[in-house]
Design a protein that fits this description.
single chain, alpha/beta, five-stranded mixed beta sheet, 11 helices, 39% helix, elongated
């Protein structure tokens, strides 16, 4: 594929169409970085963030924050939901100073720090197993609050419980399939002028929902993705792709949005 040479800007991904399936309000960071590299970005959300059916468990935990020794936040969505409830319940932010905070990934860390709280631990790798490795020798006899999505892997609560922690898991939000995306996704895949060269996946939820949007027939899914490369942000997302019968063509070495963009540029530069 011929790429237009323009010394004024990066053209690493010029002529490459990339489908971004992050939630609508979060697509900007990935889309902006891809556009800066010259890509044509197609945004069709594979997930929609919704309130949980009840905030009662989260509200009770926030009311009793002083009882905890550790707080674990796994995503920016969890941070936003938690601080929103603190504001709505008019709970003092001083409650956040009595324990240590763990954040998975730099984006989550940044979201916490933007709200005036300090992050004590960021695991080396941005996956649940790395959280366990960082904390397993520190939590015996301690109370731990894990704030996360409704559907999530149980690695952290299971393994920290084995390490002697008393852990409470509370739901801060849930992810659902945006039904309005089904027709748009299928149309984009069928239209030669809109068909992406790469589809990005930034979580296991984006993979599962993408498959649901495409439909249940595996043969039809493979046909829809023929010639399209999948790009995964990390090992858990890659495992979900494989579990659902999809290939992993591009994998980020650093499990972040910049890491994913770098991996896409590296893979597609010879396209």
């Amino acid at each position: 594929m011929n790429k237009r040479i323009d010394s004024a800007r990066d053209t690493s991904l010029a002529g490459i169409r990339i489908l971004v399936g992050r939630a609508r309000h979060q697509a900007g960071a990935l889309s902006d970085q891809l556009r800066k590299a010259g890509a044509e970005v197609i945004e069709i959300p594979f997930i929609e963030i919704r309130r949980p059916k009840s905030f009662k468990p989260l509200d009770m935990a926030l009311k009793n924050l002083a009882a905890y020794d550790w707080l674990i936040l796994t995503s920016v969505n969890g941070v936003e939901a938690m601080w929103d409830r603190l504001d709505k319940r008019r709970l003092p932010k001083t409650k956040l100073s009595g324990f240590r905070i763990v954040a998975i990934g730099p984006a989550t860390k940044g979201a916490i720090e933007q709200r005036g709280a300090n992050v004590d631990v960021v695991p080396k790798e941005y996956v649940a197993e790395s959280v366990v490795k960082s904390l397993k020798n520190k939590v015996k006899g301690k109370r731990v609050l894990l704030v996360r999505a409704k559907v999530a892997r149980d690695v952290i609560p299971r393994e920290l419980s084995k390490a002697g922690a008393q852990i409470d898991v509370v739901e801060a939000y849930e992810t659902v399939v945006p039904r309005s995306s089904r027709a748009r996704l299928r149309a984009a895949l069928k239209n030669p002028g809109k068909r992406p060269h790469v589809v990005t996946f930034t979580s296991s939820s984006t993979v599962r929902n993408f498959v649901e949007l495409l439909g249940p027939a595996q043969k039809a899914r493979h046909k829809a993705l023929a010639g399209i490369r999948t790009a995964s942000i990390g090992p858990v997302t890659s495992a979900t792709l494989r579990d659902l019968g999809l290939p992993v063509d591009i994998s980020a070495k650093k499990f972040t949005i910049p890491g994913l963009v770098k991996a896409i540029i590296g893979a597609m530069s010879k396209y």
